[in-house]
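ok so heres the complex, two chains, lmk if somethin looks off
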Amino acid sequence: MKELRAVEKSEIKDFSHKTKGVFFSRKQLCIPYAVFLLFFVVFPLLLIIYYAFTAINGEFTFENIKCFFVDPDTLEFPSATLICLFNSMLLGLITTALCLVIGYPVAYILSRIKSHRRTILLLLFIMPMWINFVLRAMAMKELLSLIGIYGNNDYLSVVIGMVYDYLPFMILPLYTTLIKMDKSLEEAALDLGANKFEVFTKVTLPLSTAGIVSGISMVFLPSMTCYVISETFSYGNVKIIGKFIEDSFITGSDWNKGSAIALILLVIMFLCTILTGGFSKEENVRGTTL
Amino acid sequence: MKKFLSGLVIALALGFIYAPIILLFIYSFTPSKIIGRWEGFSFELYRQLFTEPKLKNIIVDTVVLALLAATISTVLGTLGAIGIFYNKKWLGKFTKNASQIPVINAEIVTAISLALVFALINMGKSYASLLIGHIVLCTPFVVLSVLPKLKQLDPSLYEAALDLGATPFQALTKVILPEILPGIFSGFMLAITLSLDDYMISAYTKPEEVETISTRVYGALKRDRDNILPALRALSSLIFIIMVIALIAMDFKATRAAKKQKNVVN
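and the predicted structre for the whole thing:
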C-alpha cells in the first residue's frame, strides 16, 4: 500500500513537471490582471495616502488629517467635516436598516416560491437596474414631488431615494443565501417541536447571516458616499461625506484635503471589512447570481 | 391568509420599485419639459430620441463604452480568475485581494484615486482614462462571477485532457473555458450593467467632450434647463418595454416547459 502511494506521488510529480515550462502555465494567467491592478488600484490608493500626508508644496504634514477633525478656520472641534461624517453614517444606517427590513421579507418570500415563476419574479426586482440609476432617481424625485414630499421634507426624500436605489442590492445577496439554504433544516426544527417563530429566529435567520452581511456591505458604504442621490433628492440641502470630497477636489481643488477625507473613508472601509471578514469570502457580491 | 400576506408584500415592493418607472413611461408620450404637466399625447420625444444628433452621440458613447469596457474586463477578469484559482502562491493571493478593493471601496474613493494617477502621469483626462476607470470598476465582478464556476469544475478534467495528449493551451481552451462559460457570460452582463449605470468613475475620469447618460442627466438635474432630459424619458421607456417583452417571453417559455414536465410526469 505504501509503495503504491509512493508510486502515485512520483507520478504526480512527473505529471506536474510535464505541465511546467510548456510555453505557458495557467498559474501565470493572472499576470496581466495583476499588473493592471498594481497600476490602477494599488498605486492610486498609495497616492491618496501620499497626498493626505503632504502639503501643496509636497512637504510632509499632518495638517490635512487634523483639518478633518478640527475646523482649520474656527479651530472648533468637531469640524463640519467630522459632523458630516457622522450624519452620513446615520443616513447610511437608516438606509441599510430600511433596505434590510423591506428586502428580507421580499427575498424570503421569493426564495420560498415553488412555481416556475420564481426566477421571473426575481428578475422583476433586478431589471430596473438596467435603466440608468440617475434617470430612475430623477423619476422617483418627480414622483415624490407629485405627492408633495420632495421640497417639503429633504431628509425623508433622500432616505426614500436611497432605499429605492439600493433595495435590489440588498435583495439579491439575501435571495442567493436563502435559496441555497437546506430547507430540510427548517422542517427538522418544526418536527423537533419548535414553533414557526423559533424556526425563523433560531434556524433561518442565523443561516442567512452571510447574505445579510453582504447585503449590508453593498448598501452601507455607497449610501454614505454616493452624493448623486442626496444631491438630487434634497437640492443639496442634505450633504453627505462624498460631497465633501467632491467639493475639495473640484470646487476647492484642494487635493490634499480631499485625499485626507478619502483616506479616512478607506480606513473605515477596512475596519468594516475586517469586522465582517469580507476579504475571505467570495460570495459577498452585487449579484453574481445574475 | 399567509399566501395573501406574501402576495401583498411582493406587490407593495414591486409597486415601490416600478411606480417611478411607470411615471416615466406615461410622461414619455408628452413633450412636456417636466413630469406632472401633460401637454397632449405625442411621439415627439421618441422622434427626438432617434433624430437629435447630440442625444444620439451620448447614447452611442455610453453603449460603446460599456461594450468596450465589458469586453476588456471579461478577458482580463477571466484570465485573472483562472490564474487566481490555480496560483496559490503570492501572485494569486495578491491578485485576489487587490481585486476585492474596488468592490468594497467607496466608488468616490476609487474615482478620485484614479484621477490622481492620471494627473500624475500627465495623461490628463481622455477616452483612455475613462475606459481604464470602467475596467477598474467592472473586472473584479467578472472575477467574482468566474471563480465559483472554477470551483465547481472537476479538477481531473484538465489532467485527463493533458493525459490524452492535449497541450496545456488546448486543455484550457477546449476543456476549461467551455465549462466556465456561463460564469464568463454572467460576468460580461454584470460588467455592462455596472458600466451603463456608473456615474462616479465617469465623472472623475472622463474628458470634457465625452458625456455618458449618467453624467449628462446629473448635470442636467443640477442645471434644470436641459432640453435633452425629456427625450431620455423615451429612452428609459424603450428599455422598460424591451424588459417587459423579454419577461413575458420568458414567462411564456417557462410556463410551457412546466406544462410539458407535468405531462411527462402524468
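quick notes: Confidence is low (pLDDT under 50) at residues 1-22, 279-290 of chain A. thats all i got rn
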